[in-house]
Write a structure and sequence with these properties.
By secondary structure, the protein is mainly alpha-helical. The longest helix is centred in the middle third of the chain and has 28 residues.
Length: 116
């Protein structure tokens, strides 16, 4: 796997996690009455745009590579989402979530080593 493909795989996972974090942040505004649409709409639109970027990167990677090479990167998105939620949404990072992320990262490493 060359450097550009590796970067595209990583970028797709950052887009997936980033887009979902943007959508969650935007949806937090909907609990206010009345909803602050000027805050909500730009973040919501950014989330959709970033998730669209993920989709097109992912489809392009699937077009060029075997799924056994690309799919192990999907295991990174839960790790990125937990870290992003802690950093941007001020969610608590617990010992249990850290252990879970370590297990996921280990599984991703094993799956990528086993790919033909």
């Amino acid at each position: 796997m060359n450097t550009w493909i590796l970067l595209a795989c990583l970028a797709s996972q950052f887009c997936l996690a980033g887009g979902q974090i943007c959508l969650k942040h935007a949806m937090n505004f909907t609990h206010e009455t009345p909803p602050p649409w000027r805050k909500f709409l730009p973040i919501f639109a950014l989330g959709i745009a970033v998730l669209s970027g993920w989709f097109f990167l992912w489809v392009g990677l699937l077009q060029e590579l075997k799924i056994s090479y690309v799919y192990p990167f999907e295991g990174l998105s839960p790790v990125l989402m937990v870290l992003g939620a802690a950093a941007f949404l001020r969610e608590k990072l617990t010992v249990r979530s850290c252990v879970g992320m370590a297990l996921i990262a280990g599984g991703v490493a094993l799956a990528s080593l086993a790919a033909p």
